[in-house]
Automatic annotation (TrEMBL):
Pfam families: Hexapep. This is Transferase. It comes from Microbacterium saccharophilum. Keywords: Transferase. One of its GO terms (molecular function) is transferase activity. InterPro entries: Hexapep, Trans_hexapeptide_repeat, Trimer_LpxA-like_sf.
Length: 135
């Protein structure tokens, strides 16, 4: 049986240890908290300090930077990038290759479409079709 972790060197020469999540085999850094019912697909990276709530779905190739929060039943589509300190609300959907900047907030139930970006510190709320609502 193979080992259940991977060591990866970061840009600063530090070695970070990632364990393979039981549900999906995505890589979870030491210091991240991922609920056992969340699905973290293989090829996804969850960095230290991240919190992923129950029922969330993290797709292949997703990168979630340190200290981000992913709410219950949120869906992060493949190859999306969630910046450091960002927060994704419950049942929100983040599209394929979408980018959510540092410290941005995506409201409960919002839809960020494929290839769409949410800027650093931006607050976004949408209707179910992805049309942005007035702040």
């Amino acid at each position: 049986m193979g080992k259940n972790y991977v060591d990866i060197e970061n840009d600063r020469g530090e070695t970070l240890r990632y364990r393979k999540h039981v549900n999906g085999r995505g890589l979870i850094a030491n210091g991240a908290k991922v609920h056992p019912t969340a699905l973290v697909e293989q090829g996804a990276y969850v960095e230290p300090g991240v919190q992923v709530a129950a029922g969330a779905h993290i797709g292949r190739g997703v990168w979630i930077e340190p200290d981000a929060v992913i709410g219950p039943e949120a869906e992060i589509a493949p190859h999306a990038h969630i910046g450091p300190g960002a927060a994704i609300g419950a049942r929100a959907k983040i599209g394929v290759r979408a980018y959510v900047g540092a410290n941005a907030r995506v409201a409960v139930g919002s839809l960020i479409r494929d290839d769409e970006s949410v800027g650093e510190n931006e607050r976004v709320a949408t209707d179910p079709r992805g049309l942005r609502l007035a702040a």
